[in-house]
């Protein structure tokens, strides 16, 4: 009979200790230990048995990109890297009520193969109610309201679906363990069990995970290491837009984002995000410029807003939303030194409108123009798009994917686009948009301000 004892496990890295520790000696995370029951290690003292496993030559392994199973929701497939890879485990995290179950249910109904939806949070009838609201009706959609892992595994073997959805991993438990569902040990063991089966049968598993108050996926950090793909479903509660973002992807880029809009009858794809991000722009206000950022393979036009106010006391405030704070500090120093703008005693607030986070240097020039516009109280020409990286010498440096960005600006009817001088050579063909090359921030600001 196996005995159990308590141990303390770090939720960040899985480090085990016999007593509670304030800081993990392994990963140095604070306050990350929680008490767990663990079974006595039966594996200790085991001698090496003669095994029959055999390594395979890489060239003998067959795998093809075409094996991917499409969810037939373009925004979802693109974030996944082109569809679901057989044998892979996808973890989707997100705030309560953001629409995780809705997203996977809509995807499940569009998948052509057999899908098993395991719900540990709602009853079959509640799921049916949602399915009716979303008008989900598919022959290949199987439901199981279950939380005990053995039953899930049994159903997976019996039914042999191509895709299994576990909603959510925190509600699942293994009865051999004395821990409560949702504890680190349970989450880890349930995932390990399901993964073992999925890797051998090539079934795809989509796990839904809760998110803690800090915005991390609840459960051990190791969970994010063992799964193949980690997706975050985010959005503002008061906005209907939802963004699906890859944090980790073994089978695709992590730069792609999927944009959705939540309606009464479910999520709809937003295939023209630029129009949405620019829809609420006020053409008459100072400090607002339009730039283009590449999100994966797609250029997205968005508004950069800046507000510069005089600071009456002490240290001026600098606040950046959706933009790196340190990068803002650098750009302010460049503007002060190279463009002669007096910013050292001004409060500067910067906002990427629409709640997006941008970490691309191509938006630097737009940030500089918005700040200059607000400081000088002069409007930016409303039909201009501004792109370019800004160097410490105040020079405007070249950026990638210039053609795509110009095309997007052209498509949305902009009159002109300001681009780095060095990119000008590579712009081909006749355009319906005026292209203005600039080589330093001084000339960019002079060109763009009214
Ligand atoms: N009857 C309804 N009409 C309109 N929208 C609804 C309706 N019911 C739910 N919704 C929308 O769906 C959202 C909940 O979706 P869903 O249950 O998929 O979220 P979830 O992320 O799975 O939540 P949980 O963390 O509780 O499992 C709600 O926040 C709301 O926006
Ligand atoms: Mg749910």
Distance from first to last alpha carbon: 81 Å
Q: What is the total domain count?
A: 3
Strand percent estimate: 25-35%
Q: List cofactors, ions and other ligands.
A: adenosine-5'-triphosphate, magnesium ion
Instruction: Output the radius of gyration.
Output: 26 Å
Based on DSSP secondary structure assignment, what is the total number of beta strands? 21
- Biggest β-sheet: strands ordered side by side in the sheet: 6-5-7-8-4-9-10-11-12
| Mean pLDDT across all amino acids | 86
Please estimate the helix content.
25-40%
Low-confidence stretches: none
Describe the structure.
- This protein is of the alpha/beta class.
- It has 3 domains: 36 residues; 205 residues, P-loop containing nucleotide triphosphate hydrolases (Rossmann fold), CATH 3.40.50.300; 173 residues, Ribosomal Protein S5, domain 2 (2-Layer Sandwich).
- The protein is 26% helix and 26% strand.
- Helix 9 packs across helix 12.
- The chain starts with a strand and ends with a helix.
- Magnesium ion (MG) binds next to helix 2.
Present the secondary structure layout.
Blueprint: E1 4-10, E2 16-17, E3 33-39, H1 74-80, E4 89-94, H2 100-110, E5 115-119, H3 124-133, E6 141-145, H4 149-159, E7 163-167, H5 184-201, E8 204-209, H6 222-226, E9 229-234, E10 241-249, E11 257-263, E12 266-269, H7 273-278, E13 288-295, E14 298-310, E15 318-321, H8 325-338, E16 346-352, H9 364-376, E17 384-386, E18 389-390, E19 396-397, H10 402-411, E20 416-420, H11 421-424, E21 434-438, H12 441-448
Parallel strand pairs: 4-8, 4-9, 5-6, 5-7, 7-8, 15-16, 17-20, 20-21
Antiparallel strand pairs: 1-2, 1-3, 9-10, 10-11, 11-12, 13-14, 14-16, 18-19
The structure holds adenosine-5'-triphosphate (ATP) and magnesium ion.
The site of magnesium ion has 4 residues, from helix 2.
């Amino acid at each position: 009979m196996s005995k159990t004892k308590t141990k303390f496990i770090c939720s960040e890295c899985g480090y085990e200790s016999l007593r509670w520790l304030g800081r993990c000696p392994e990963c140095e995370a604070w306050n990350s230990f929680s008490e767990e029951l663990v079974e006595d290690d039966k594996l200790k003292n085991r001698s090496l048995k003669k095994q029959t496993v055999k390594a395979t030559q890489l060239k003998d392994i067959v795998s093809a990109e075409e094996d991917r199973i499409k969810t037939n929701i373009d925004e979802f497939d693109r974030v996944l890297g082109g569809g679901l890879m057989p044998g892979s485990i996808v973890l989707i995290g997100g705030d309560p009520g953001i629409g995780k179950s809705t997203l996977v249910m809509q995807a499940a109904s569009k998948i052509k193969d057999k899908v098993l939806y395991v719900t540990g949070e709602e009853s079959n009838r509640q799921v049916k109610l949602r399915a009716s609201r979303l008008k989900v009706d598919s022959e290949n959609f199987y439901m199981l309201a279950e939380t005990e892992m053995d039953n899930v595994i049994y159903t997976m073997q019996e039914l042999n679906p191509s895709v299994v959805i576990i909603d959510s991993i925190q509600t699942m438990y293994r009865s051999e363990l004395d821990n409560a569902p949702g504890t680190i040990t349970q989450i880890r063991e349930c995932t390990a069990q399901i993964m073992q089966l999925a890797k051998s049968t090539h079934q795809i598993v989509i796990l839904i995970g809760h998110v803690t108050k800090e915005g991390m996926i609840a459960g051990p950090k190791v969970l994010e290491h063992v799964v193949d793909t980690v997706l975050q479903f985010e959005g503002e509660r008061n906005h209907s837009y939802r963004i699906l973002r890859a944090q980790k992807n073994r089978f695709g880029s992590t730069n792609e984002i999927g944009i959705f809009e939540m309606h009464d009858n479910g999520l709809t794809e937003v295939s023209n995000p630029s129009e949405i991000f620019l829809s609420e722009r006020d053409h008459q206000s100072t400090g607002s410029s339009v730039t283009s950022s590449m999100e994966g393979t797609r250029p997205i036009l968005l508004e950069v807003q800046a507000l510069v106010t005089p600071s009456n006391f002490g240290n001026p405030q600098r606040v950046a939303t959706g933009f790196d704070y340190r990068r803002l500090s650098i750009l302010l120093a460049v503007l002060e030194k190279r463009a002669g703008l007096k910013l050292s005693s001004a409060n500067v607030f910067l906002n990427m409108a629409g709640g997006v986070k941008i970490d691309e240097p191509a938006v630097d020039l737009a940030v500089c123009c918005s700040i200059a516009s607000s400081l000088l109280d002069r409007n930016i020409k409303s039909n201009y798009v501004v792109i370019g990286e800004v160097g410490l010498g105040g020079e405007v440096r070249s950026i990638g994917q210039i053609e795509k960005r110009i095309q997007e600006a052209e498509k949305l009817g902009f009159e002109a686009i300001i681009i780095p001088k060095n990119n000008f050579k590579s712009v081909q063909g006749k355009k319906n948009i005026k292209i203005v090359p600039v080589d330093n921030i001084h000339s960019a600001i002079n060109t763009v301000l009214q």
